[in-house]
Amino acid sequence: MKLMGKVSIVTGGGTGIGKACALRFAREGSKVVVAGLDADPVKEVVKEIESGGGEGLALRSDVGIPEETKRIIDATVERFGGIDVLVNNAATVDLARRIEDMTMDEWDRCLDASLRSVFLLSKGALPHMKKAGGGVILNLGSVGAVMPWAEGGAYCAAKAGVLAITKVLAIEFGPSNIRVNAISPGAINTPNLRRAAEHFHHYDKLCEKSVFNRVGEPEEIANAAVFLASAEASFITATNLFVDGGYLTL
After folding, report:
1. pLDDT tens per residue, range 2-48
2. Which residues are catalytic?
3. pLDDT one-digit tens code per residue, 133-146
4. CATH class of 7-249
5. What is the pTM of this model?
6. Domain coordinates of the chain in residue numbers?
């Protein structure tokens, strides 16, 4: 087991990529705190973790709010004694709006969930990782950070910021043995992608954005996350790993 004895936090952990990461981390021996905006899905993920013999904690939270992110950090430390791995996966991706039609509230909602949360949770987790002698932060980016699309202004801007803060954190906290990396998925078979495909009427085109002529599965992102969180990636930091099926080559 690659994460035996570790304590991990996964945000946006109730569905899609976050759920896949939480379940896979638990199978690899980690205790997992599953945080999400909706209570029922994160509770179901923790039930699945526990039914497999693992340990989990479900937390309903809005990660764009400082008090909520502090509660995640405090509850994790209280329950499990520390934090070894933080997976910043939460994001708002259901906002499809041209810049000229976007309200300030919509912009803020997306940036809060997708970028501000990375700052808040990393800031909260870092002292505990330093105290423990090291840790890992994984931030979920997107191909949209480097190849934006129309009506994706807030999301793509947020994900570009995620890639930047990943490098800054890696530089600042490498001397404390804290590795910080990003994973940038392409088109992945999640509820958010399916809703987006319905909006734009282009699921077939998403499949064409892979040399395999298919979308990826959440478990394929979780595979990459486990590797980067494990000791096998001990000399990898400040890196953005594209898990996109060749999306950026087409």
Report:
1. 999 999 999 999 999 999 999 999 999 999 999 999 999 999 999 99
2. 155
3. 999 999 999 999 99
4. alpha beta
5. 0.96
6. 7-249
Per-residue confidence (pLDDT) for residue 202, from 0 to 100: 60
Q: Would you state the structure tokens that stand for residue 19, as one six-digit string?
A: 């759920």
Phi, psi dihedral angles at 138 (to 5 degrees): -120, 125
- Gap between the Cα atoms of 213 and 211, Å rounded: 5
